[in-house]
Amino acid sequence: MDLDYYYFVFEIAILALVAFGLAYLLALAFIVRDFKLIRSKPLIFIVELILMATLPGIPILFFVISRGISWDKAWIWFSSLSGKFVIFHIISEISGFYSWLFA
């Protein structure tokens, strides 16, 4: 194996990390814009960020439980947010696949 192969693998890994970071920031920007959680309840926002980094479905339940929202409103919130998370997961899965493929 020559040096060009390792450079190519390194370049793909960097691009995958950048794509994952941008997707994560995009998802966070949508959440901040939609719900203004930083100003209203910063502790809940921090907990949601930690949970979102591990399992994206948990913040939805946490949001509903912590605010006492009816399930009708929660479904509207979930359907609007789920599209944003689908984009986030597609980008992160693609970047993860390319990192695994070329590593």
How do the helices and strands line up, and which of them pair or pack?
Layout lengths: L2 H33 L1 H4 L1 H13 L3 H10 L3 H32 L1
Helix pairs in contact: 1-5, 3-4
User: Which whole number gives the mean pLDDT?
Assistant: 61
- Number of DSSP strand runs: 0
Q: What's the shape?
A: elongated
Number of domains: 1
Cα Rg: 17 Å
- Tell me the number of helical segments per DSSP (H or I, 4 or more residues long): 5
Along the chain, the helix and strand elements come as: HHHHH
> How does the helix and strand content classify structurally?
mainly alpha
> DSSP strand (E) fraction?
under 5%
**How many strands, which pairing sense, and closed or not: the largest β-sheet?**
none
Uncertain runs are none
Tell me the span between the first and last alpha carbons.
Answer: 14 Å
DSSP helix fraction: over 70%
